Automatic annotation (TrEMBL):
The gene is Usp16. One of its GO terms (biological process) is protein deubiquitination. This is UBP16 hydrolase. InterPro entries: Papain-like_cys_pep_sf, Peptidase_C19, Peptidase_C19_UCH, USP, USP_CS. It comes from Horornis vulcanius. Keywords: Hydrolase.
Length: 216
């Protein structure tokens, strides 16, 4: 999608991301890096249709010898529509020569996360004036083992029916103003074995997939 927004506001976010100062090895740091502002230069220059037309004239006057114009540009990936369910997939592998190696270090993640610093200032389904987009954790998938073999387990929060979430999913409406984690009991599931666990146990897991439901 080509944006013709004012360059001064094109990269604005709902909340000031520069005040975030994310901690290393945290989900906030991952999101900060994923949504950082990038400069496209040299071999990464952007093909600019407007610049090309200015250089060569209207398309109907351009013959086969048309020369495309590439220009320096800025790129940033931001959330333009806050989802009812936020799914974060961590890349848990890295290249080691010609092989892939699993990344086993712990990535910190919170029970409630604010997505506002990673949302565009014109986020479509956030009420004007809101500077928070809060989500509550309700599921984690963890992988143990290596790149060649292993075992998947899950942590799931059993909680009451969330009418607010249903409104978001089925009607796209947001009216509730919850800001605290959804209450419920956490369980660890490994094949057919299920046992209750504490939230501290969940937050210390080596997450591979994180599932959050929208609060605000």
């Amino acid at each position: 999608e080509v944006s013709l927004d004012d360059p001064e506001t094109a990269f604005s976010t709902l909340a000031n991301r520069e005040e975030l100062n994310p901690e290393e090895d945290s989900i906030h740091h991952c999101l900060y890096q994923f949504t950082r502002n990038e400069t496209l230069t040299e071999t990464n220059k952007l093909l600019c249709d407007v610049c090309t037309q200015r250089h060569c004239g209207p398309k109907n006057n351009v013959k086969s010898e048309k020369k495309y114009v590439y220009t320096n540009a800025k790129k940033q990936m931001l959330v333009s529509l806050a989802p009812p369910i936020l799914t974060l997939h961590l890349k848990r592998f890295q290249h080691a020569g010609f092989n892939l190696q699993k990344v086993n270090r712990h990535i910190k993640f919170p029970e409630v996360i604010d997505l506002a610093p990673f949302c565009t200032a014109k986020c479509k389904n956030v009420a004007e004036g809101n500077t928070k987009v809060l989500y509550s954790l309700y599921g984690v998938v963890e992988h143990s083992g290596t790149m060649r073999s292993g075992h998947y387990t899950a942590y799931v929060k059993m909680r009451a029916m969330n009418n607010h979430l249903s409104d978001l999913v089925f009607r796209g409406q947001s009216q509730a103003l919850e800001t605290e984690p959804v209450k419920g009991q956490w369980f660890h599931i490994s094949d057919t074995h299920v046992q209750p666990v504490s939230v501290s146990k969940v937050l210390s897991s080596q997450a591979y997939l994180l599932f959050y439901e929208r609060l605000l």
